[in-house]
Write a structure and sequence with these properties.
elongated; single chain; alpha/beta; 10 helices; five-stranded antiparallel beta sheet; six-stranded mixed beta sheet
Length: 380
Amino acid sequence: MRFINNIKTCFSVVFLFSILNVMGQTNSEKFIIVLDAGHGGKDPGNSYHGYVEKDIALKTTMKVGKFLEKEDGFQVVYTRKTDEFIELVDRPKVANRLNANLFVSIHCNSVKNFEPKGTETFVMALNRSEMNLEVTKKENSVIFLEDNYKTKYKGFDPNKPEVAIGAKMLQEENLNSSISLATKIQENFTNNLNRNTRGVKQQPLWVLDAASMPGVLIELGFLSNNEEGEYLNSDEGQTEMARQIANSIIHYKHEYFNEPNNGDDVKQVVRTYKPEPKPEPKEVVDTTTSKPDETIKVIPGQSLYKIQLFASSKKKDVSSNDFKGLKDISYTFENNLYRYYYGKSYDLDYARKMCNEAKNQGFPSAFIVVFADGKSSALK
């Protein structure tokens, strides 16, 4: 009998959670969506080839919002509308306080390898469910600060175990909804824009786990891939991507709220994006290497980073113990000085790591040198 009563209690709690989700929306009777532009302010996110994640995420997010604001029945809320730093903990709180129907966070990807490309959409990982239950209890505790909470919530106590069980059941329901939305987003990117898809993935991302409603985190593509970064950095590319995200959200609203689908979720924009013509890569001799016949592919205008270890008036063998075990040593000779370098990379972040490695290896005065357009200079 106790087991049956507990089951009844759990279902009652789930029902109550549903009631609480509706409460706070009754004034507007609209579908509330919180759009979260990743990073901002002092947190630029990824930055490659001159493309900055925080800027692209904000511009694309604002375009998604403008599309949705033109639709009936939507209330769009943004975690940020300008280039400002918003703490991670505050982003899902915006959605939780509003009892929003949906939370969508927009970002850009990157890796050290410049080849990978494609979109991917993340949903909450179940292996973080216990953490999310604790967040749910903490967020719900604000109820106790409200006047007449016992009457308004009919004895609802977020600290009771059965409420935690109810939260877990609701969480699993949210996951299914999130996967459905994420799948639609990826399908739209691929079918309507011919973007490469990397699929829907579950990842322990705190910003999703802390949200008490269905949510997704969208990676628009890789800024480390110059071609994809150029597309995402363009106004046309951002508009095309935003339209497909908005279409997916409209479809989600129709599907999960039993609304008639009048074709609003298949609106398109005229595709006007055309990539800038790229110069053919030229075979350029890397004059900084100790191997005269070594050549590398260099795109004109691209910067190459190396770590200067020291300068000497005497020529040294690159396998000398003077380099303390560091490999990939090269040098230049100018003004009667041999300048010795460690490593090479087109990725500034990776160059900084190499510089720290050199310092830890016994070269405290090591610094980054930039080679571009036939000239070299110390990185300031």
